[in-house]
Amino acid sequence: MIEPTAEQIEALRKPRLRDWQHETAQELRQRFPDHAVARPPEATGALVARAVEVGPSYGVTSGYDVRRLAECLLLYGPAFPEGEHDAWAKRILRRDDLGGREKMDAISEYETFALAFRGPGQ
Prior knowledge:
The chain has 6 helices and no strands. It has helices at 6-31, 33-36, 41-54, 63-76, 87-93, 100-118.
């Protein structure tokens, strides 16, 4: 059996990742036009790339969850979860007892319940 080298695997991975990032950026611009309109398309792509970069440090690694993290970066700003109003998210993302999906679910629940009653940054 022939085994691919690490270089061959990486060569195959890069174009797929680039395509996924581009598709995700387009999707975010369509789903959140009010937030995306203030940024050039490349800036939305940069937010997706940032989510890919920082996601693993929080245990957020699946495409679905990285996309959700990119949504947060778009909605709350590129400093998320390190921004001054993001302490709630930082606490969730730093939890060791939750996996990536559970962390992103907890963020969604917080957005739905806590932010709905008081608004972001309050």
